[in-house]
Amino acid sequence: MTWTLPRIAPPRSNTTGSRKLGRRARAADLYVGSYHRACRRAADALRPDRLLILSARYGLLDLDDVIDPYDTPHGAAAAITAEALLKQATVRGIVLLDPVVALGGARHAGLVRTIWPHARTPLAGTRGMGEQMARLAVLRKGHEQQLM
Q: pLDDT by residue (tens digit) across 124-148?
């Protein structure tokens, strides 16, 4: 089983990953920024058995979970902690999954690896949003070509 956790960028000014709808919505629809869309396209191309979103505020989300918009960066008082994330993963029965793929930057991947130290992190080593977007495009196109 492959479980893919596309990154939700922590809200920061002038970043493409932090854009959200201004109203309550399904997690699949709430995040409208180009970074999240690129992560979702790459994740979808991997054809995971299950795709979860890792929210800085709410933690693990199924695509159909309905949530309110938020402005909570990783590390803030209201942000998800490794302890809370472990509890969520335990309740969902997914702590022992392998493989797990986490699409996101260093803070996101670090949080994922507190639960899944073996998680694959294809964006590791990138030096910013531009390199991450380029790598996501390569991931998407590479897997799309394999499916043809």
A: 999 999 999 999 999 998 865 553 3
Q: Note whether 67 and 55 are within 8 A (CB).
A: yes
Return the ∠ at Cα 31 (arms to 26 and 36), rounded to 5°.
130
Distance CA 122, CA 116 (A): 14
Query: Tokens standing for 67?
Result: 């949530």
pTM for this predicted structure: 0.81
Angle, in degrees to the nearest 10, between helices 129-147 and 34-45: 30
Report the alpha-carbon distance of residue 51 to residue 63 in Å, rounded: 7
3-state SS, one letter per residue, for the chain: CCEEEEECCCCCCCCHHHCECCCCEEHHHHECCHHHHHHHHHHHHCCCCEEEEEECCCEEEECCCEECCCCCCCCCCCCCCHHHHHHHHHHHCCCCCCCEEEECCHHHHHHHHHHCCCCECCCCCCCCHHHHHHHHHHHHHHHHHHHC
CA separation for the pair 76, 68 (Å, rounded): 17
What are φ and ψ of residue 67, in 5° steps?
Answer: -135, 160
